User: Fold this.
Amino acid sequence: MIGTTVLFNEIKARGFTGGSRTLRRWRMGVRGDHPKPDTPPPPPSTRDITAVIMRPGTKLTDEQKTTLDLLCQRRLA
Assistant:
């Protein structure tokens, strides 16, 4: 495998205008050295939380019931 410095010098001679750091980051992505961490889902909006809390349980969708369960678990934790 060609080292980053050797590759950088070669592509720079061919007109690459980026820096060696850009090349290193690209190579890490290609090789998979540093997988991106999973980002947690965004928290529900205030409006969604209020709607779930105030609506009667019989009128909640399955998704809203799941949201309510998660909110209750967070409160207890």
Q: What stands out?
A: The CA atoms of residues 43 and 49 lie 10 Å apart. Residues 62-76 form the longest helix (15 residues). Residues 46-76 form one domain. The chain is about 60% helix and 0% strand.
